[in-house]
Automatic annotation (TrEMBL):
Species this chain originates from: Ramlibacter rhizophilus
Taxonomic superkingdom: Bacteria
InterPro entries named in the record: Glyco_trans_2-like, Glycosyltransf_2, Nucleotide-diphossugar_trans
GO MF, one annotated term: transferase activity
Annotated ranges, domain Glycosyltransferase 2-like: 4-120
Sorted UniProt keywords: Transferase
Full protein name: Glycosyltransferase family 2 protein
């Protein structure tokens, strides 16, 4: 398997060398590492240009957003697979090898991924390889990714690879101009076309709470565009019939998630508004629990409950549906 690794870069100078080095140190060597500098104003691009490895390619473009940077890298990729890594994250040395094992186990899959873990680390120091227990390295073949996502988060934008030919056959790859859900939007559209194989072990590390990070989001007031499109595409037949019900359920579950986020910020009216619009999950245990907390639980306790629930979630998962 020949992997082209695409790394979008925007003002992550203190992290980018660690990210690139984690790719170059893979036991299964990548074909190339394409870093797309999206108009950074720090020294990140210069640090990449100074790396003495012929596999590293630097592409510069005016600032156009992370989706445009990823699309530019995909267009330039020469490998059979495009693997994605954000500029402030890193891989375990066995990450690409784990993807190759997943492909051998599930050759029908067109998207491969691994689980991941989150650390709070702002200095940019390289990560020492972390232990990955073999007992948790089984490969899971996923047919309905939305339904699987409701259980827990099986992959992220720094732990996924997609077959290049499939990506280039799609009319749209990452939707440009959107900053929330642009990755999920693509994962689910790919999964509508072919199965997904995931290694259920954390072979990627993402940095949490980094200022300017793509993982940091302000409280949403409206349903993000990718969920609006998903709901519309489920109703108009764009999404294959066998996935339409889970697509509508997924949208409703994300509305409950947004209600919980609003509740944690003491935005009770916002929480109630999202819950009342989550028609597809009304009367589910998760919906009813959130409604109860919104209506009856004192502000401080509701906030502590939400933050405790997030901290206590499975280390490999994000927002598990209960």
């Amino acid at each position: 398997m020949k992997f082209s690794v695409v790394i979008p870069l925007y003002n992550k100078g203190r992290f980018i060398e660690s990210a690139v080095q984690s790719v170059l140190e893979q036991t299964l060597a990548p074909l190339e590492v394409i870093v797309v500098d999206d108009g950074s104003t720090d020294d990140g691009a210069a640090r990449v240009a100074a790396l003495a490895d012929p596999r590293v390619r630097l592409i510069r473009q005016p600032n156009a957003g992370v989706s445009a940077a990823r699309n530019r890298g995909i267009a330039a990729a020469q490998g059979d697979w495009v693997a994605l890594l954000d500029g402030d994250d890193a891989w375990h040395p066995e990450f690409l090898a784990a993807l190759a094992r997943a492909h051998r186990a599930c050759p029908e899959a067109q998207m491969l991924g691994t689980r991941f873990h989150t650390v709070v680390e702002h200095t940019g120091r390289p990560f020492e390889p972390w232990p990955v227990p073999e007992a948790f390295c089984e490969t899971e073949l996923i047919d309905d990714l939305r339904l699987r996502w409701m259980k827990n988060t099986p992959l992220c934008s720094s732990s996924v690879a997609i077959r290049t030919e499939l990506l280039r056959s799609m009319p749209e790859r990452f939707i440009e101009g959107e900053a929330w859900g642009e990755d999920l939007d693509l994962w689910f559209r790919v999964s509508d076309l072919a199965p997904v194989a995931v290694v259920n072990a954390p072979y990627a590390t993402i940095r949490g709470e980094v200022p300017g990070s793509l993982t940091r989001r302000d409280l949403a007031r409206e349903l993000p565009p990718f969920l609006v499109r998903m709901r519309q595409h489920a109703m108009d037949g764009t999404i294959p019939a066998r996935y339409r019900q889970s697509a509508l359920w997924f949208v409703a579950q994300l509305q409950v998630t947004m209600a919980r986020a609003a509740l944690a910020e003491n935005e009770r009216l916002e929480s109630l508004r999202f819950l009342l619009r989550a028609r597809g999950s009304m009367l589910s245990r998760r919906w009813m629990m959130t409604m109860f907390m919104t209506l009856f639980v004192p502000v401080g306790l509701a906030d502590r409950w939400q933050r405790w629930r997030v901290r206590s979630a499975d280390a490999f998962a994000q927002e598990p549906v209960q």
